[in-house]
Write a structure and sequence with these properties.
About 90% of the residues lie in helices and about 0% in strands. Helix 1 crosses helix 2 and helix 2 packs across helix 4. It has helices at about 5-35, 35-65, 70-90, 90-120, 125-145, 150-180. The chain has one domain.
Amino acid sequence: MWKSPKEMVLLGKFKKQAKIAGILFIVLGLIGALFPVFATFATVIFVSWLMLFAGLLAGYFTFVTDKSDFSGWLKSFILVGVAIYMLASPLGGIATLGLLFSMYFFMDAFSGFMLSSSIYPKKGWGIWAINAVLSLLMAVIFLVNWPFSSMYLIGLLVGFSLFFDGIALLMAGNALEELDKNE
């Protein structure tokens, strides 16, 4: 298939950048997995700053569009308040984030079980069931020793996620290189 020069340049850039980003993600993921407490603190601080920025933007847009919008002001106030709390008390932020992860995994397990049961006995139902069981297991692991387990589990999960994202990016860059060689 013919590719335009623009597509060739974009694919070349993506291929190179995917490999670089993949290696960086793998390194960051390994650091996070080896030093989970450090990764947990870094994650909480990063999430706190994102929430603070989002809360300030929500407040600004509420001010500009409709100053009487109570729900817009409430959203802004909650985001800014939680962000300040998490920045001022990182241990409390870690416990909060751990509880949120637990709720996420419980909801993911529930939806996985529902999806699995809705497609049973068709092909693929088993992988959704396994995913649901693993999500349920993660939720229970977070809750069993909460809030103390949050100190290392958040960092481990973020580290593993970055590591596998890095592998995926590296593989994508390599796959594009193989496609170029075959053409």
